[in-house]
Amino acid sequence: MPSQSRRRAITPILFSAPFREASCTMSVSCGPLGTSLTQEILSSLGLADKTTAWGTLGTLRTFLSFSADKDVQRLLKAIAGQGVDYDTIVDVLTNRSREQRQLISRAFQERTKQDLLKSLQAALSGNLEKIVVALLQPAAQFDAQELRTALKTSGSAEDVALEILATRAAPRLQACLAVYKHDFQVEAEEDIRTETNGILQDLLLALSKGDRESYSGIIDYNLEEQDVQALQQAGESGTAGQWVLLLTQRSPEHLIRVFDQYRRCTGQELEDAIRNCFHGDAQLALISLASMLRNTALYFANKLHQALQETEPNFQVLMRVLISRSESDLLSIRAEFKKKFGKSLYSSLQDAVRGDCRSALLALCRAEDI
Fold first, then answer.
1. Nearest 5 degrees, angle CA 152-CA 162-CA 149?
2. Which DSSP category does 5 fall into?
């Protein structure tokens, strides 16, 4: 890393007390049902398709006073001086939506005839460089690269690949798979067949088709009862097909009710039934998927906490989760983190992470939860 020239310290954005209370209230109901209610409200306001609009659960929103030309000037000044101004680079890129960052890249190209990403890569190194690359990439390209790495790395498919295929909205998932085919000259489905096997392969293939039912807002109690009975019978017979079908096809909102009804009918949580029926990689994959569907925000809170507990914080996990969830539900994840672990995600990052990437991760997290 070149010598640093710190021109301005980045300070965390502390929300006012009313906003903190509002964000915590929204974030507690962070499962799919809470998200649906949020989307319902936003829809009535004409904001349902604005994922970075005020009132959503992301920490990073569209910068209202945005000027691509001014941001280009700031970035040029940050990398053209005697010392690289890391703080300015982080400040600009972590305070703009992904769409706005793409506009900055185009404006930079038009003004300088150079590629912004390559220019920043030449000025940076290490984990900060990786964050900047991830921030400047289109979301689909970022997901495609993470998915490819997961499938080609031993032990990552049941974790990262499952996470990407199960938690991305249908349009983003389809874009990811299209970029995957374009960049790597192979269908993701083909790599899944080559690199995985068993129930994990069945889950990944089913999820990659993007056929999960969308939530209609109507509760189908008959279907709920049928699904509970189907899972009970599948558990008794030890067959995985019905588990794979339901967990990859039904909407998360419906499945949460199925999980609750299953507990009332059998006296045990669905995850406990999985532990009794399956072992090894199959068990891990099914429990991971069930956890994502039951409470997505809690799943990611657990993932971040685990990454921070390692001897050296798992930077790749921290980067992927904070960037990929920053414009959708990171406030919910922060609330679940504080609720379960008794300490805010912001403070945990402050205490565990060192180096130049620290300020960028803190900026994505955004603020302390009191």
1. 25
2. -
Mean residue pLDDT of the chain comes to 86
Question: Which of 253, 201, 188 minimizes the C-alpha distance to 227?
Answer: 253
- Nearest Cα neighbor of 289 from 263, 262, 302, 271 is 271
pTM above 0.85, yes or no: no
How far is Cα 359 from Cα 353, in angstroms, rounded to an integer?
9
3-state secondary structure of 270: helix
Q: Are 14 and 346 in contact (CB under 8 A)?
A: no
Q: Is 235:276 a contact under the CB 8 Å cutoff?
A: yes
**C-alpha to C-alpha distance for 261 and 228, rounded to whole angstroms:** 7
- Residue 12: exposed, middle, or buried by beta-carbon count in 10 A (0-12, 13-18, 19+)? middle
Query: pLDDT digit string (tens) for 13-38?
Result: 344 333 333 433 333 334 444 444 44
Whether the CB-CB separation of 364 and 352 falls below 8 Å is answered with no
Segment 53-68, tens digit of pLDDT: 345 799 999 999 999 9
Task: Write down all domains in the chain, each with its CATH number in brackets.
Answer: 68-136 (1.10.220.10), 139-208 (1.10.220.10), 221-294 (1.10.220.10), 296-365 (1.10.220.10)
What pLDDT digit, counting tens, does each position of 259-307 carry? 999 999 999 999 999 999 898 888 999 999 999 999 999 999 999 999 9
| CB distance 71 to 92 below 8 Å | yes
**Contact criterion met (CB below 8 Å) for 367 and 15:** yes
Using CA atoms, how far residue 5 sits from 77, 181, 252, in Å, is: 12, 41, 48
211 by DSSP, 3-state: which?
A: coil
Report the greatest alpha carbon distance in the chain.
69
pLDDT in tens, 82-120: 889 999 999 999 999 999 999 999 999 999 999 999 999
Cα(370)–Cα(367) distance, integer angstroms: 9
* SS3 state of residue 4: strand
